[in-house]
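EI: anyone free to look at a 193-residue chain?
SC: sure, send it
EI:
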Amino acid sequence: AGDRGEMAKDVTNPLMICVCGWHGWPSLYRVMRKISERWPVFVVGHREIEAWPEATVIPNEGLEWGAYDYFLRNLWDGKSNVFFTHDDVEISDPGIFEDIADLADASFLFKSKESALENGARGFRGIGIHGRAFFLSAAACRKLKGFWWDETGKADINSGVIHFYEELQRLKIPIWNSIFRGYDYARRGGKET
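SC: here you go
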């Protein structure tokens, strides 16, 4: 893993935001509404989201990976970088999106180095991985073309992120960890604070 200063940045592309909607935390949607004045925000939910009535609702298939795949194949503009996130996260400083927009390649977001270690950094060549929040450059999105998701509904809950990591490796897309102290996430839908 490197730090963000080592990355080849592609800042010519704007940023789109894809939120996987399920929990509907109002505080997160207030932040999304605020930043949507600058960057387009798309919510792909597995049910209606009271705080975001314009959400695209799709069947609850594939967990977040089904929602992310739907976004990439149907809503992505084909030229923008994308930030993907769950909706059970807390963003204490909307200003972090200025830095998120400046990321490159593929980058998993964490609140701390310890959090990255808790999420697999010991076993994935020093890279922490999860599906709660990550950035993909437009070039990475074009290479990826979509996300694998479990169509049977029987795979382990971590299968999606492991497939994603392996696909990034296969496509030779550089993978980074980025630490954002203004970003925090729940454990599988914990309560909003």
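EI: The CA atoms of residues 8 and 104 lie 6 Å apart.
SC: 👍
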